[in-house]
Every structure is written in C-alpha cells, then in structure tokens.
Amino acid sequence: MNKATSDVIAVYVYQQGIEQAKYSYSTAVGLFNTAVNIILLLVVNRIASKASDVEFV
User: Fold this and answer.
1) Alpha-carbon distance 37 to 43, whole Å?
2) Are 21 and 8 in contact (CB under 8 A)?
3) CA–CA distance, 42 with 38 (Å, rounded to integer)
4) What is the mean pLDDT of the chain?
5) Alpha-carbon span 5 to 2, nearest angstrom
6) For residue 26, which of 7, 16, 18, 32 is within the disulfide window of CB 3.0 to 4.6 Å?
7) What is the maximal distance between C-alpha atoms in the chain?
8) 56 three-class SS
9) What is the pLDDT, as a whole number, of residue 36?
10) Residue 23: phi, psi to the nearest 5?
C-alpha cells in the first residue's frame, strides 16, 4: 500500500537487477549510490574533524 513511498535504494536496485533482469541499469544505480555515499562520508568526516578539534591517527 505504501511501497512507493517507503522503498529504499537498495531494494530498488535488487528489484531492477534480480526481478526485472535489468543488470546494467541496477549496476549503474548501485554504483551511483556508492559514489554519493562516499562523498557524503568524506564531507561529514571533514566537518566533524573541524568541529571537534581532535586529531585522529
């Protein structure tokens, strides 16, 4: 009933790749998701390190 609003990217990639056999499309979506996650991780890590004034090894 609420599948359209509660679907997450991982489930969408699974449905496209496994259930509908769109392997190249699901790979592209998964790769884009990974790239966005890495960029967000690096940005938040930099913000956190500047805000805390603590050096990490």
Assistant:
1) 10
2) no
3) 6
4) 87
5) 6
6) 16
7) 49
8) coil
9) 95
10) -65, -45
* Number of other residues whose CB lies within 10 A of the CB of residue 4: 6
Strand, coil or helix: 28 = helix
* Distance separating alpha carbons of residues 10 and 8, to the nearest angstrom: 6
Q: How far is CA 45 from CA 11, 35, 37, 50, 54, in A?
A: 27, 15, 12, 9, 12
Using CA atoms, how far apart are residues 31 and 21, in angstroms rounded to an integer? Answer: 17
Q: 24-40 pLDDT, tens per residue?
A: 999 999 999 999 999 99
- Is 90 exceeded by the pLDDT of residue 43? yes
